[in-house]
Amino acid sequence: MALLAQGSTVPSALVALMVFRGPTWACLFCFTSYEDRVRICQIFAGVEGPELEKCQKAFITAFRGLLDIEINDHERNHLHDAFTQMTHTLQEMAMAQGSFKVAFPNAAKKMQEVIKKLKEVEACIPPCGVQEASRSFRCRGCYSHVCELSLDCPVQDLTVTRGQQAKFSCSVNFSLPQEEITYSWKFAGGGVRTQDQSYFRDILQARGNLVRIRPVQLKHRGTYCCEISHDQFPVARVYFFLNVTGAPPRGETKLQVSFRKVLDWAPREAEMIESWSPSLGELLASSGALTPSNQCLLAAAAALASASATLVVWMFFRWYFKGN
Known about the structure:
It is built from ten helices and eleven strands.
């Protein structure tokens, strides 16, 4: 800051104008400060004079190719560290009486190589959701950007016969953060098929990403909404429209009702809306379960179980014949 603080005959406003005349929002301006850029040129060319202006213009021109760079937002700190190291290197070269006409293009070329090695931006996966994994950072504007997709996913239709059970799996086709994920369920009754949140009421007994209703009744017909949140911020809303079919059961006669009371029959199964965990058979029967990687895991598990059983049998016979 000492060089910057010295009395320069070039007004600070004019210096700022010269520095920002070029493509102002290149990566250079996102990851370096105005003071650092001026200090480097003052070391190269002096605190005043035409060489200072040439240095500043050369600095901007060298990094013009980094104007439209877009990187994975998770790599932003890595790129910031690379630019910080670059400024230190340029200061050392300037103090060693190097030439900015050579130093700036070389620095820009090395920075392009650093950017090529960064993790690529993940593509947005339609049709819905706030996809943090695809968040990117844009040097033109120095801001982070996430997919501009709707929070509401398309409604999925499910038809269930009355008296059976309905199962809902709240999932999306993009990766979710590993922690701080919560699921909340809502219901819009009356057979309405909607995404309007004003129609929904909370289902307090439903938690987690898997929910089932048993036995299904006509009053359960309507739209169910599962809201996925990360750290209390909505990520996506998944909708299911449940259509209940089948004629209502035949009504009991007065004699049957009286007979039930006399014998104190057990009541019918209570209606439940609850979270559930699928069995191994249900997981294997679900679509997309037997992926190539899962098949390899199952084969490895089967081979391990077979080898273990063979080893146990062999040890038993060895012990048996040795004892005899």
